[in-house]
Amino acid sequence: MSRIVAIFGATGQQGGSVINHILNDPQLSQGYKIRAITRDPMSHKAQQLAAMNVEVVRGDVSDRESLNTALTGVHTAFLVTVPDFSPHALQVEFDAAKNVADAAVEKRVQYIIFSTLPSVSRISRGKYTKVASFDAKAKAEAYIRSLPIQSSFYSPGSFMENYITATLLRRASDGSNTFVMNMHISPRTRIPLIEAAGDTGKFVGSILQNPHEYSGKTTHGAERMYDLEEIAREIGKATGEEVAYRQISEEEYKASIPFAADVVAEAMSYFEEFGYYGADTEGLVTSGSVSSDGKLTSFGEFLAKHQPKLL
């Protein structure tokens, strides 16, 4: 008999990737029945899932009654929380994860897989405190570990999808045909990259295949490390345009960001000074890559697939 796996964030990049991986894996598709949890079961993406014979159920992380209904009969839950950018961002996101975890315990869910991130404030020893989306997930991870439920954790690298946005790549202001990637940190800064929509499921699929092996452990999910100059070169190669990395002042960088400038700038400064996962980032990425249930997508392959246009 198939076990029910509840996928939170089912219409997003990570949740959608997990659903697709389960549906396309002969063993997982036989062992698990998918329940897609979404705030709006009537949305276009939710209806696309329903058309694929996926059970779509309403669940709101701020509505405990809906969570109790959504988690009834569930064996395993994959939980993704959405970053908040209000003045109470850390507490809002932590509370969302806590609500789901508490409901999972109450409804006797057997296993939680939580999409986590490292604590920026802890690793930086209090130097960087504004990256709430990382700190909230780290706090939620610690809380889930304290509960009477089996759990494992997937910690994704930086999403490749974020590096082809119009706000990151702009035409040079000198009238040339060059495009520039402007940031305030060194071009040698190395960042782990993952195609969230394509490859999240490959890591979570491994956990679903061997839940006892991964119990209590954190899987670090990235294809490999890339420095910022290499990212710029790969984009240039894929688009046929001249793309260069340019290091600018932090003030200039913040002025170029349309939303949450202080948070984004601080996150990038943290990556440069302390490493994405801390001092052992390189080793964690290397060891984590072997946990993938299938070949991971390189940044070049990602660009070839999505064919970004520079304007």
Automatic annotation (TrEMBL):
GO cellular component, one term: nucleus
Superkingdom of the organism of origin: Eukaryota
UniProtKB keywords: NADP
Entry annotated with the keyword Ubl conjugation: no
Classification via CDD domains: NmrA_like_SDR_a
NmrA-like domain: residues covered: 3-303
Name of the protein this chain belongs to: NmrA-like domain-containing protein
Organism: Conoideocrella luteorostrata
